[in-house]
Amino acid sequence: MGRPINKKHIGDGAGKIQVTAVRFAAGAEVAAATESHIKSQRSTTKFNVTDGTKTEVCTLVNKTPGTLAASEFCINVADSAGVTKQITKLRNRSMQIEGTSNAKWARTAAGLSAAVEKPITGATAANPVVITSNGHALANGTKVTIRGVVGMVELNIETAYTVAGTATNTFQLAGINGGAFTGYTSGGVVTVAATETGGIVVDAQAG
What we know:
Structural class: mainly beta
Strand order of the largest sheet: 11-17-14-15-16-13-12
Mean pLDDT: 81
Strand content: 25-35%
């Protein structure tokens, strides 16, 4: 399988790779809010995955969260255009992304996943949707993706959003009419797209 991914990128803890969703052989699909993670690698597509309670060998697949079969998991990434895609193979120095050849993986100076993430504390069902994220420091025009929102689940779709109308603790999702969306309950994370053309950002665990 070539050189396996470095162990410092996998496991539990801040900056490690976030499993977007996993479904074990028995039971329902587990969403990213649980911070499921990889414990070890068996090949470029098979990994020991855990949700903190159960651990199982699962296959990395290119499927939308909510559609996983038994013993499958997926990992979302954001490309330089802010578009959410999925990893299909994990290697030491590169990741294969759906519909492309190998992609560069953004890392911090410490070699960890370089996701720039902002916690969400509120969202209004308005036109446009307004997100509350205290001290977000995002600039207008920034491309972002959203995951893990409870209640207003319509925001958790695999697409890019464009930040607009920024204030200190809020920003708008340009062109997104949330008038018919479900009311926001809790949670959610904003992930900033890669800044390097052709690069990707892997969702990372918050803690």
